[in-house]
Amino acid sequence: MARRKLVYEGKAKILYEGPEPGTFVQYFKDDATAGNGAKKDVIEGKGVLNNRLSEFFMTGLGNIGIPTHFIRRLNMREQLIRQVEIIPLEVIVRNFAAGSMAKRLGMEEGATLPRPIVEFSLKDDKLGDPLVPEEYIIAFGWASQQDMDDIVSMALRVNDFMSGVMFGVGIKLIDFKIEIGRIWDNDFMRLVVADEISPDSCRLWDVETGQKLDKDVFRQDLGSLSDAYTEVARRLGVLPSNVTHRPKPTLIN
User: What was the pLDDT predicted at 241?
Assistant: First the structure.
């Protein structure tokens, strides 16, 4: 079998040339990073979990009419996706104050926001993915005003879907980030949700206990990242067959 052509390797995923024109194979790695790569580790099974979880969310979005780059899952670590022109922005939706927003504004972690807030950051690790206002985005030609209106509308629809799904399994969606890509059909352009949706790109807290079930577990050394992601997958009913959830030891009095 011929070796596939590598197109791009990021911190958590690898893109290979797809079997058909206009497609990629997206491979999910076990690598975990924080602080733009300052902290690194390899978490066994993380790529398998993120592949299945991203499939779950992308499929759900497609079912309610939100277009994505996802075509189908190929195996435990890979999925077939459409080739898209990525808009160089991270689209962040916040329902509660946390992370950089809480620090920036001196807010208490977990404070409820008056409404979901959509922010944008420039995708550039060297610059630390700085926040950028819509005026910059439009002025520098990264997206048009119509694109921005459509992106905000799409991001809020994704938030409605994700919030409902998560709350249904006892998880609070604190915030998340997505990427948006363009797909061209002759002169017609469509915006689609791209990259991935997984605990790597969301903040997820248990509704009852406030326990963190996302990458903050790794960032803040709060325990096993594998256990946290496995718990999310278990609650959503998408636990891969080759990933077992290890019960926590119980205290015997």
Answer: 63
Same domain, 15 and 137: no
Of 82, 115, 149, which residue constitutes the final position of a domain? 82
Report the relative pairing of strands 188-194 and 70-73 from DSSP bridges.
unpaired
100 and 171 both lie in a single domain: yes
Domain residues for the domain of 206 are 85-225
Q: Please tell me whether residues 70 and 129 are part of one structural domain.
A: no
> Of the candidates 57, 55, 77, which has an alpha carbon nearest to the alpha carbon of residue 66?
57
Is 139 in the same domain as 29?
no
- Per-residue 3-state assignment (H helix, E strand, C coil) for the chain: CCCCCEEEECCCEEEEECCCCCEEEEEECCEEEECCCCEEEECCCHHHHHHHHHHHHHHHHHHCCCCECEEEECCCCEEEEECCEECCEEEEEEEECCHHHHHHHCCCCCCEEEEEEEEEEECCHHHCCCECCHHHHHHCCCCCHHHHHHHHHHHHHHHHHHHHHHHHCCEEEEEEEEEEEEEEECCEEEEEEECCCCCCCEEEEECCCCCECCCHHHHCCCCCHHHHHHHHHHHHCCCCCCCCCCCCCCCCC
Q: What's this model's pTM, rounded to 2 decimal places?
A: 0.91
For residue 73, give the nearest of 55, 57, 90, 91 by alpha carbon: 55
Domain boundary among the residues 82, 100, 126 is at: 82
Which of 179, 234, 171 is closest to 203 using CA atoms? Answer: 171
Q: Each residue of 200-232: pLDDT tens digit?
A: 999 999 999 999 999 999 999 999 999 999 999
